[in-house]
Amino acid sequence: MPTTPPSLRPGDQVAIVCTARKVSREELAPAIQILESWGLRVTLGESVAAAYHQFGGDDALRARDFQRQLDDPAIRAILVARGGYGTPRIIDLIDFSRFEQNPKWVAGFSDITTLNCHLLRLGHESIHGVMPFIFAQPGGADALESLRRALFGEEISYAVAAHPLNRPGTAEGELVGGNLSLLQTLSGTPSDVSTAGRILFLEDIEEYLYSVDRMLVHLDRAGKLRDLAGLVVGHFTNPQDNAIPFGLSCYEIIDQYAGKYQFPVAYGFPVGHEPANLALICGRRARLTVAAEGTQLSYAK
Description:
Elements: E1 13-17, H1 25-37, E2 41-44, H2 59-71, E3 75-80, H3 87-90, H4 97-101, E4 105-108, H5 113-122, E5 126-128, H6 141-151, E6 157-160, E7 169-179, H7 180-186, E8 199-205, H8 209-221, E9 230-237, H9 250-258, E10 265-267, E11 280-282, E12 285-291, E13 294-299
Parallel strand pairs: 1-2, 1-3, 3-4, 4-5, 7-8, 8-9, 9-10
Antiparallel strand pairs: 5-11, 6-13, 7-12, 12-13
């Protein structure tokens, strides 16, 4: 069973870093204010305000900064500033040996699926949740509160409206997943994680419909769907199409592959690239109940 990092307490120090796309100190000002209102002390890593093309500094700088925050026992959680792309470029440069002796929360989503999966592969929980760059986005209050609750070890459970494509049932298993394109990118690498007996959650943004289908083909052929305990399908934001339409929506594509198996499936879950992006604890054992009246997701006792 994956280990759970210590919950945060008022007065704890947290770090914000960029493992992917660059961000300025000014863009993080609202997030710093919010984190301080939670009673936390905030440290900005050297990758914040650094720039190398679209990245928050070159690979060496981003890796060095993340490594420093991992190894510093005074830092109790690491929040990745934003997604984009870049974390897979540096993951093999990171030494997790000190972290494994002194685990701490690492939180983010999108490209940070890399860290969520890698940490789970090492046997540690992490948080898939909203990132500092968009802490103050309109409509994101519930997502932000869910992240706070996850970091501080408070009870979390979610109730979601029914969806026409839902497949009813109940499942228990550790949560695993995140961004679909990153899950495919990590397949076959040292950051790849097993999905067998687990509840997989998926989300993505601005992918072509044929590409979503291609990635589902890959996951299915790789055996990632066959032995799932359950499937949670989040936002697939702003999908793209070709001049000749693909003919199916993202959810309909997923349903074609999920429909081959018997596990429960919940569509329309508020996770992904929209303000309603509820925090999920990767590696935490959860209970998924999909019924006619809606979906319940809570962490198993």
